[in-house]
Amino acid sequence: MRRIEIVGVNAWYGNQHVLEDVTLTIEPNEVTAFIGPSGSGKSTLLRIINRLHEESPGARLEGEVRFDGADIYADGVDPASIRRVAGLVAQNPSPFPTMSIVENAICGLRFNGIRKRGVLNEQAERVLRLVGLWDDVADRLHQPAKGLSSGQQQRLCIARAIAVEPEILLMDEPSSALDPVSTLFIEQLLMDLTEHFTIVVVTHNLQQAARISEKTALLSADRSGGPGRLVEAAPTVRLFTEPASERTEAYLTGRLG
Question: What's the rounded mean pLDDT across residues 149-171?
Fold first, then answer.
């Protein structure tokens, strides 16, 4: 799995400086959580990792992002190849409503040119089993995905992301729209998936970060509206129990947010 190194990253949307001088290492086969107040650049940093940031109008970036030492923003690197390595699952469950459950699971494979029905069926079953959805949907694979519950739809979106066999899984508030039972299922799923992926999760839920991640990074911005900065990154247990920064302690205790 890939080791991610973010080195001196600055990011803008037009004239708005949204991230300043962020340097961070994300280890393979772990869950790393990004926490921090709204507007601190967490989701932007997630999009930078798979080169979606540049798709926003006026977006600009300085610094380097390396996968196993190779700069993914170097000249000649195809952004599409990076997005195949680093899959992104958005905040709200978003299966394609006009597609069936099975077609949602394999649409990325079709996009990449795979047409053999046997291969597609095998991969669909594999990823649906991996996300714990197969037993729920095996008898209705060709029904519309919109008929699934919110928790099932989110698991289907995860299956869709991993069907193309990325090495990095990026999750933006993956359980914010889910009930507590579905949230716990997603959390357990993410911890189980570290066997196969490097996982980065943006979450506003401090308890969730404490439950699922090996490492936590706190980003914060000045109240004046300045760019987000990395305040502290450390093993999760240490960050939550012995924060090195007063700003981290203030955020964890609700005095900053």
Answer: 91
Quick one: pLDDT at residue 43? 94
The DSSP output letter for 38 is T
Q: What is the DSSP letter of 145?
A: G
Q: d(Cα 74, Cα 71) in Å, to the nearest integer?
A: 5
Instruction: With respect to residue 13, please indicate whether it lies within any of the assigned structural domains.
Output: yes
Would residue 173 count as lying in a domain?
A: yes
How is residue 228 annotated by DSSP? B
Distance CA 52, CA 43 (A): 11
Residues in CB range of 179: below 8 A, 6 or more apart: 150, 151
Model confidence at 178, pLDDT cuts 50, 70, 90, reads confident
Q: How far apart are CA 188 and CA 205, in angstroms?
A: 15
Look up the CATH number of the domain holding residue 188. Answer: 3.40.50.300
Per-residue CA distances from 152 to 92, 96, 121, 193 (Å): 12, 13, 19, 17
Is the whole model's pTM more than 0.85, yes or no?
yes
Give every CB contact of residue 252 below 8 A, 6+ residues apart in sequence: 206, 240, 243
Q: What is the pLDDT of residue 257?
A: 62
Please give the Cα distance from 68 to 87 (Å, whole number): 17
Q: Which domain holds residue 23?
A: 4-92+166-252
Residue 217 has pLDDT above 90, yes or no: yes
User: Is residue 136 one of the residues assigned to a domain?
Assistant: no
Q: Dump pLDDT digits (tens) for 95-110.
A: 888 899 999 999 988 8
**Does the residue 241 lie in any domain?**
yes
